[in-house]
Amino acid sequence: MTIRTRTFAPARSRFLRGAAFSRRLHWIYLVFGLAFLAFVGAMALLEHLGLSHNWIGFLFVVGPIVFYAGIGILSRTTDPTEYYVAGRRVPALYNGMATGADWMSAASFIGMAGTLYLGGYGGLAYILGWTGGFCLVALLIAPYLRKFGQYTIPDFLAARYDGNLVRVLAVVAAIACSFLYVVAQIYGVGLIASRITGVAFEVGVFLGLGGILVCSFLGGMRAVTWTQVAQYIVLLVAYLVPVAWLSIKQHATPVPQATYGYQLQKVIASEKRLQADPAEQRVIAIFQARADADDARLADIPAALAAERSVATRRVTELKAANAPQGDIQAAERMLARVPRDSDAARDEWTRERDANRERAQPLAGMPRHAQQFAGDPHGDPAARRAFDDSRRNFIALVFCLMVGTASLPHVLTRFYTTPSVAEARTSVGWSLLFIVLLYLTAPALAVLVKVEVFDTLVGTRFDQLPAWINNWEHVDGSLLQVSDVNGDGILQLGEIRIGGDIVVLAAPEIAGLPYVISGLVAAGGLAAALSTADGLLLTIANALSHDLWFRIVDPKASATRRVTVSKVLLLMVALGAAYVTAQKPGDILLLVSAAFSIAASAFFPALVMGVFWKRSNRWGAAAGMVGGLGLTLYYALVNQPGVRETFGIAGPAQLWWGIQPIAAGLFGVPFGFALLVVVSLLTPPPSRAAREMVDEVRLP
Amino acid sequence: MPTSEFAPAADPVRAARARHWRRTMRLTAVLLLAWFVIGFVVTWFARELDFPFFGWPFSFWVAAQGGIVVFVVLIAVYARRMARIDRRLADETLPADAPAPR
Question: What are the boundaries of each domain within chain B?
Answer without folding.
Answer: 11-92
